[in-house]
UniProtKB/TrEMBL annotation:
Residues 40-134 form the Methyltransferase domain. Keywords: Methyltransferase, Transferase. One of its GO terms (biological process) is methylation. It comes from Phycicoccus endophyticus. CDD domains: AdoMet_MTases (cd02440). It holds the Pfam family Methyltransf_25. This is Class I SAM-dependent methyltransferase.
């Protein structure tokens, strides 16, 4: 299965109920207000936090590689009475009708791009979709290996009367040379009539600050800021969570 097709079927239901982290809308509202509209959230998933930005009065479109996630986002928008545009496209092949003054990833979604080639093509697509004075916000993450004690331990959540969803990490490879972590996980939905189960490989591909800057330059982007999320200072090679602000490189 292609990494872009990871979020489908029962994984979409499990994501909504069992995701380990959520991202507050505030920082993205601030970014879009400071940078300008229209805005595009890449990897919008089921609409968090994108729909909150729409409620705040901002013009924000969304794009996600998963057809099931796009459907869920549109449903959530309709339930909240929000009118917006949500597209199904892969970021590395992004081809939308307009350019955006603000583009952002909510959390380190960029790390789901499975290799350097795909990541570079994604940055090139972002460059093509930015207005001349626009900017993109890209959070990044260098993960640790999943603790061995967590392997085989399930997280569960109810999904209506008599329905239980579960997520269980089964095994993992962690390769520092390729900067890739692959976690094989099992998703299950259990009802009175039985259990539906699917195994997926969750791929995280990371970038050091220096390597990411070089990749941006190759893609025609200029890094305006690269900030360590913990210290709020310039990211160094020991930073493990940092956020890049980029724009199209000047041709002058």
């Amino acid at each position: 299965m292609e990494p872009a097709d990871f979020y489908s079927g029962i994984v979409v239901d499990a994501y909504a109920k069992l995701k380990s982290s959520s991202f507050e809308a505030g920082p993205y509202i601030d970014f879009v207000r400071a940078t300008g509209e229209p805005a595009l959230e890449i990897g919008c998933g089921d609409g968090e936090p994108m729909l909150d930005l729409c409620v705040a009065g901002l013009v924000v479109d969304g794009v996600d590689s998963s057809a099931d996630m796009v459907d869920r986002c549109r449903q959530n928008a309709a339930k909240r009475g929000i009118s917006t545009h949500v597209y199904q496209q892969r970021v590395e092949a992004l081809n939308l009708a307009r350019r955006y003054t603000s583009i952002y990833f909510a959390g380190p979604t960029f790390n789901l791009l499975a290799d350097d080639g795909t990541a570079t093509r994604a940055l090139e697509a972002i460059s093509r979709h930015l207005t001349g004075h626009g900017a993109a916000l890209i959070p990044l993450w260098i993960p640790d290996p999943t603790p061995q004690a967590d392997m085989g331990v399930s997280r569960t959540a109810a999904d209506g009367p008599g329905v239980e969803l579960s997520y269980t990490p089964l095994s993992e490879t962690y390769d520092k040379d390729t900067r890739t972590r692959v976690t094989t996980s099992r998703y299950q939905r259990t009802t009175s009539s039985g259990t539906e189960s699917v195994d997926r490989e969750w791929v995280i591909h990371w970038h050091t600050p220096h390597a990411f800057v070089a990749m941006c330059q190759e893609a025609g982007l200029e890094v305006l800021a690269l900030v360590d999320n913990e210290t709020n200072t310039r990211a160094s090679e020991i930073s493990t969570e940092f956020t890049a602000t980029v724009r199209r490189a000047s041709t002058v």
